[in-house]
Specification:
390 residues; alpha/beta; Four Helix Bundle (Hemerythrin (Met), subunit A); Rossmann fold; 6-stranded mixed β-sheet; 41% helix; flat; binds guanosine-5'-triphosphate; binds magnesium ion
């Protein structure tokens, strides 16, 4: 295949939006686009349209006899184009395949970002900023994005720099405290591009699956009046108060009546170990403060909340302050569960401190801390430099 000076990359996150954007750049891009794309208005000459102009037409790809997808292309510069097409992966793949057939090199958007330079900006971003750009393409909520944007704007790099100065000045104790402060935000930082994992657990038939459905606002989990209905872990994603959350419904915890249920209960136990927040659900009619408190597991380090469900089935009942009374059937108290989850997450992140948000950050900060414990400030400074500059 002849060598062509043209690169393409998908700028939008895969499978996330209704529209995908593909960037096509390089001195051969005008020629290749003219071959693959036919403007609806036959008077339009792609080669000569001005920057910023959007053209509607048909992507007839490799086979001119096939109808092809209707889409728009936009000229972004002398040899820079964007194709805006349907967001589904089949549509995107068809366009990339046609481009590849014409010798276009297909890159990831991060590769294209580093070489395209976005008019020179890329050359000036430090590694943390570059990681923030990458992380921003994965976030689910505006709140996560806002925190990552602060790191992009320099919050984390500035804090690392200020700790570095303390180290150079011989202030080892103060540096240690500040690194520990950053590390306390590290779990939350990782969750910004993922989700906080909330597990609902408790005895069978108390309404765990019904609560999951009420929290989501649609029926995701199967609800049935027989104990032992949920036999596997059912997960669903949502957001509370702007925090991304994964809810996990689990098999009711009891002596299993068969092997399948036993396997489900086993999985519940591993979900509990991996949870960020645990909701223990009970039937309010079985409420017994002592029994319920014994269900809080002190060996689990996560925040744990008590939920007493089916409140519609009892008259007024005195509950301890920390117990949330709910009725999944009548949608009562669901907002209190959401608030409890949001509160646990807010407690997990200290926004007056910068937020490390990749495993690389965490491992270098931990390494620097370890060096400081051995009074090796030279090694700690090297770790901090590596954190910002790679
Ligand atoms: N009256 C009333 N019934 C409820 C409530 N929540 C759930 N139920 C009923 O209780 C039964 C069990 O509900 P599920 O949500 O399947 O309970 P579960 O805890 O997921 O049960 P397992 O999956 O078997 O562990 C169903 O018949 C529900 O309709 C509630 O708040 N009030
Ligand atoms: Mg269930």
């Amino acid at each position: 295949m002849t060598h062509v000076n043209c690169q393409a990359s998908v700028l939008t996150a895969r499978g996330r939006g209704a529209i995908a954007v593909i960037s096509i750049t390089g001195t051969d891009s005008d020629q290749i686009l003219t071959t693959l794309f036919l403007p609806a208005n036959s008077n339009i000459r792609l080669m000569s349209i001005e920057t910023g102009r959007i053209v509607f037409g048909r992507w007839h790809g490799t086979d001119p006899n096939q109808a092809g997808e209707e889409l728009v292309v936009c000229r972004r510069g002398p040899h820079r184009w964007e194709v805006h097409c349907h967001g589904g992966s089949a549509a995107v793949d068809a366009i990339l395949n046609a481009l590849a057939t014409h010798g276009v090199s297909i890159q990831t958007w991060t590769e294209s970002y580093s070489w395209a330079g976005l008019e020179g900006d890329a050359a000036n971003v430090n590694l943390i900023q570059f990681e923030a750009i990458e992380a921003l393409s994965c976030v689910d909520t505006e709140r996560s994005a806002a925190i990552l944007l602060r790191q992009y704007a320099g919050e984390l790099a500035a804090e690392v720099d200020s700790i570095r100065k303390l180290l150079v000045g011989g202030m080892l104790n103060e540096s240690t405290v500040r690194i520990e402060g950053l590390l306390r935000n590290s779990r939350a930082g990782i969750r910004l591009t993922g989700r906080w994992k909330v597990v609902l657990a408790g005895p069978p038939n108390v309404g765990k699956s019904s609560l999951i459905n009420a929290l989501l606002g649609f029926d995701r989990a199967i609800v049935f009046d027989q104990p032992g209905t949920t036999r596997d872990v059912v997960k669903a994603t949502t957001a509370f108060d702007g925090w991304p959350v994964e809810l996990a419904d689990t098999a009711g915890l009891r002596e299993a009546s068969d092997a399948i249920e036993a396997a489900g209960i086993q999985r519940t136990q591993s979900q509990l170990a991996a949870a960020d927040i645990i909701l223990w659900v009970h039937d309010i009619r079985d409420w017994n403060a002592n029994a319920a408190n014994s269900l809080l597991r002190p060996e689990l380090h996560q925040p744990q909340w008590m939920v007493a469900n089916k409140s519609d089935l009892v008259a007024e009942i005195e509950l301890p302050e920390n117990v949330i009374a709910t009725s999944a059937a009548k949608s009562i108290g669901i907002d209190r569960i959401m608030a409890a989850i949001a509160e646990s997450i807010s407690n997990d992140i200290n926004l007056s401190v910068a937020v490390p948000f990749t495993h690389r950050h965490i491992s270098l900060l931990s390494k620097a801390l370890e060096s400081l414990r051995q009074s090796d400030s030279t090694a700690a400074i090297a770790d901090l430099d590596q954190l910002v500059h790679g």
